[in-house]
């Protein structure tokens, strides 16, 4: 239980450092694809494809993050959190935020 | 220290080569709670690689890291076992010291009790501190964290002499409950602290006994 709590806090902290990239990509997908689709009336059924597109961008952010900040993990390692656990949490959180964005946009347009 | 007695951290079977050059070849290292163990070696001898391999963030095939005979790879995933101070900044830039201490489970007031001038910096982010203060505070955070072992890669780097002396006293005091493995080129400060001294020399880890300074001169680590 203690570890799960530490992991969640580590994921939130780490997400803050990459949020500009992750949220930027989400915003781009929503604004460039979903919003016009909803306005033109063909937005229904787009969600799985958009979510997959969003998930497919995670490796790009991961790669850039590794290249630009190779020493960023030491604090998380000292909390007992590995790279894999950190990134799996970040991808899940980002996916949920993206999903929230999609639903909010749908509700806003409807 | 564990109520069941001292804990013993051992590492061996570590072989690392870079571009065909064998950096680590014949390694056996032992640290016990209640001990400060010094790891010396020339630049590029593989000290940081060895520490990171023991910590478990560098994967080395056949590496064996054990605590009381039980394999613990990767060691950093074992709760309360060990922590590691890298040469580069430890803390994320967005985090204040107070937040970092809370996440690490450290009482920041107690950790800095011997350094009252640092108390005004608890709400600073690491990038807002001087290099020496940042290094000292990061070392103190890990030193006071509740782990059985701490691995320190150049903890005295950039720290002013008066703080080095106090930090060394803190290490001596806290070794009562944990084992410390440290590497630092400030041998004048490190050697008096250590119960055991190892030298990494051409990929081999040599345990120095007897006249340590003379041995360091013989192996070309010291000039005089």
Automatic annotation (TrEMBL), chain A:
Keywords: Membrane, Transmembrane, Transmembrane helix. The chain crosses the membrane at residues 12-34, 46-65, 86-109. It comes from the Bacteria. This is Uncharacterized protein.
TrEMBL record, chain B:
It comes from Hymenobacter lapidarius. PROSITE patterns: ABC_TRANSPORTER_2 (PS50893). The keyword Transport applies. Belongs to the ABC transporter superfamily. PANTHER family: HIGH-AFFINITY BRANCHED-CHAIN AMINO ACID TRANSPORT ATP-BINDING PROTEIN LIVF (PTHR43820). GO terms for biological process: L-amino acid transport. GO terms for molecular function: ATP binding; ATP hydrolysis activity; branched-chain amino acid transmembrane transporter activity. This is ABC transporter domain-containing protein. Residues 9-224 form the ABC transporter domain. Keywords: Amino-acid transport, Transport.
């Amino acid at each position: 239980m203690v570890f799960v709590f530490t992991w969640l806090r580590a994921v939130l902290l780490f997400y803050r450092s990459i949020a500009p990239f992750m949220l930027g990509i989400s915003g781009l997908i929503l604004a460039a694809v979903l919003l016009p689709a909803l306005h033109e009336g063909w937005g229904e059924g787009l969600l799985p494809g958009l979510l997959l597109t969003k998930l497919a961008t995670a490796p790009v952010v991961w790669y850039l993050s590794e290249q630009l900040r190779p020493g960023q993990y030491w604090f998380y390692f000292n909390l007992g959190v590995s790279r894999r656990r950190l990134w799996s949490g970040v991808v899940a959180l980002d996916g949920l935020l993206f999903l929230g964005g999609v639903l909010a946009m749908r509700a806003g347009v409807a | 220290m564990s109520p069941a007695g001292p804990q013993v951290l051992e590492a061996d079977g570590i072989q690392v080569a870079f571009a065909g050059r064998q950096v680590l070849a014949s390694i056996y290292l032992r640290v016990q709670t209640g001990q400060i163990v010094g790891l010396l070696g020339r630049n590029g001898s593989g000290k940081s690689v060895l520490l990171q391999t023991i910590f478990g963030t560098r994967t080395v095939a056949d590496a064996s890291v054990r605590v009381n005979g039980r394999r613990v790879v990767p060691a950093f995933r074992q709760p309360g076992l060990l922590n590691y101070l890298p040469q580069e900044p430890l803390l994320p830039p967005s985090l204040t010291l107070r937040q970092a201490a809370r996440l690490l489970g450290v009482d920041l007031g107690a950790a800095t009790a011997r350094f009252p001038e640092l108390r005004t910096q608890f709400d600073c982010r690491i990038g807002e501190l001087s290099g020496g203060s940042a290094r000292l505070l990061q070392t103190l955070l890990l030193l006071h964290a509740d782990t059985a072992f701490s691995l320190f890669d150049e903890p005295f780097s950039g720290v002013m002499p008066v703080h080095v002396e106090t930090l060394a006293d803190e290490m001596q005091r806290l070794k009562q409950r944990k084992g410390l493995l440290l590497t630092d080129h400030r041998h004048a400060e490190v050697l008096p602290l250590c119960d055991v001294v190892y030298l990494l020399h051409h990929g081999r880890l040599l345990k120095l006994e007897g006249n340590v300074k003379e041995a360091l001169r013989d192996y070309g680590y010291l000039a005089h």
